[in-house]
Amino acid sequence: MSLIQTNQQKAGTKEPPKEKKAEHKRKAEQKKKPWRKILYIQQDYPDNHTDKSFLEFMVLNATARRRSFGELSLAATSITQELSIVVLFIVIFFHSYNNTLPLVHFVVINSILIVLGYLMFLYFEEDLEITFDLIFNHLKTFFIIFASVFGLSSVLRTLTKAISNDTIWALTTFLFCLHLFFQDYGYLNGFKNRFFAPFSLNAAIFGSVILASRLNSDFYVFVFLAFSFQVFALSPLLRHSIKKFSNEFQVLLTALMFALTFGLIVTINTLFAILFFFFVAFINFGSPLSLMAAQKWKLFIQGPWDCAVVETVHK
Amino acid sequence: MKKEIEITLEDLENEELVQIPKRKSILTGKYLKKPKKRYRIAMITDFFYPSVGGVETHIFQLSQCLIKRGHKVIVITHQYGDRNGIRFMTNGLKIYYIPKLRAPDKSSFPTLWNNTPILRDIFLREKIMIVHGHQEISVLAHEGVLNARELGIKAVFTEHSLFGFNEIHYILVNKGLMYSLLDGVHLICVSNTTKENAVLRTALSPYLVSVIPNATDFSRFTPDPTQSDPNWITIVSITRLMYRKGVDLMVDLIPIVCKAVPNVRFIIGGDGPKRVFIEMMIEKYDLQDRVKLLGFVKHENVPNVLVQGNIFLNTSLTESFCIAILEAVSCGLYVVATKVGGVPEVLPNYMISFAKPNPEELAQKLIEATEKCKDVDPYFFHKEVREMYDWHDIAERTEKVYDDMMLQPERPLFEKLQYHSRGGTWGALFNKLIFMLRLIWLFILEVCFPRDQIHYAVDFPTDKFLKMKKKKLNN
Fold first, then answer.
1. A283-297 pLDDT tens trace
2. Residues of B in contact with A314 (CB under 8 A)
3. Where is region (Disordered) located (chain A) (predicted)?
4. ipTM for the whole complex
5. pTM over 0.80
């Protein structure tokens, strides 16, 4: 209270109101200097002034790409193929285990598949000089692998004699899930040129070996393992070349695989077939849709506050 | 309950309130009718003496200037080894070293409940009106601001650095800051770029963010033309030798500049993981007599190193304000810096030249600078920069922020709960749950340690002390 009194005492004579009004008018006419983004001079703006030029150098989503449904669906077909192939493999095992697949039929199917597959690989693969040397090398590799599997087949048949069936089924499920998870889909979609997924291949071969150990005869084990080698080690190469060759063939192949697998599961259990159908629908069409719905949340902010990137970093 | 915290005019002794012209409130636009109040401020941070750095010096200088303007300031920080309890620094600045587990990189471990009793006790016994947290990566500052808001004490936060958005540690830190600033906390940034960055990170309204720059102690950095060798043009650079400070650029540009200008030499101070590359470059191009590596330079010796030079080189890849270039200009050096972050706002064009962060352009600008630095008058630079950045001015601007904070009404609890609606459905629910649990914790503390039984701390007699100091100086 004392302060206000002191102020009034010190005020002395009051300024006449007319002069004050004129001064106000003069000050209002003097235009305010535009705000500058600098710190070294006192500007006639409060500290929290936000200018029109606030965030003018901010760039949003400069590198983000809007993907279309077709593009995403096509990329998802490789996952569908892989899933179908794994399920097909399990179904074949199921039939082998229950002796509903005669050995002769299995051998014939296997031989047709490998010959057909190899011919298709030679046709679809680009930058391939079909010389006698190349084919000889391929055949040599086949022979070595198949011969060693044939030799080991009797050992592999009794590999898991002491392990119960339930352990085998559980372990196999887990291993094939790992295989699906870590597969090199970039290669299968034609984005990369080198097949590098050792973890997934190991998991698949491990799974197929322990499955094969449940079978009855040595020769059956050999044929089954040859089949698994074709499916997991050789078919990625073929599928990669098909995808690179033509998108239509890729879609056709996926549809065929799906139809075949679906047809075979139906012979075992219709519930599983329905589940398989919905799962594939989710992967091939549902996931692209959800990714497209999520694309609107993409926010990649760049601006003058970013850490600068140096071209040559010394290490 | 509110009565205990509010300081009325009659409570203060020796009130010699300064008569100042009327100021408009920056938030409401109305004239502030009340005379200047003496505020009781708590600076809270992990980074303070005995650790040395930019933030520590900022807090110390700001506190000293606020004390000279008549406010009461205390500092709360975590203990450093044996150093715990209460200590006093210059002019009665009280420092609380509270027991808190220290994490690597000088900050401390985050907690939700542990520090509430001790912080509540400090805020109440010192009758704190405003809590001022510093530096985003300091966990104690966040905790202090959160506890203050729950107790109804006003809070201000100062942001000293720039952060990205992409990586997981940035995302966590940004969410932490967003949570701390929910309840009407004013943010102070050290440059306009920092303000843009902070507004984007924390989704604050830009009108709640003020830009108040840093300054430095210019009396320590005075020019001394006798120290520099007239036969050479000396380029000085004192930084930590790490990736963020652009050492890769330095390694590439030094050979170019040394080849182009025959009488140029480099003095590089500082140590770090990239030092070995500079040594390799010196050996490769045979520049032993042109480039001198000093190793780690103590803070006291920095002015001595700076005055030996004609040009200061700053190759940082990211910098929110850069006090180093202010120190260099104060010593009379011409500056060449990379155009990143807040650096373009700091100095006028006749003191600094900018280059994009690539070695060729930096080398080009350095070569041009070797011509310009001959015309530079070091004493003129020192005088100019002294007038641009002053701690007393910064303290006055911070005080304006405090004035506006004190005029804001304290919202009821139900409205405060609405602030926690950010973060989606589940995030909001989680935030509200944590908020309610913290309030229950405060209630328990209130029951166990009631407010009316807290012994108020005795204030350091700052006015008498300052008067005594003045008398001694005059005598």
1. 999 999 999 999 888
2. 247-248, 251, 274, 277
3. 1-32
4. 0.79
5. no
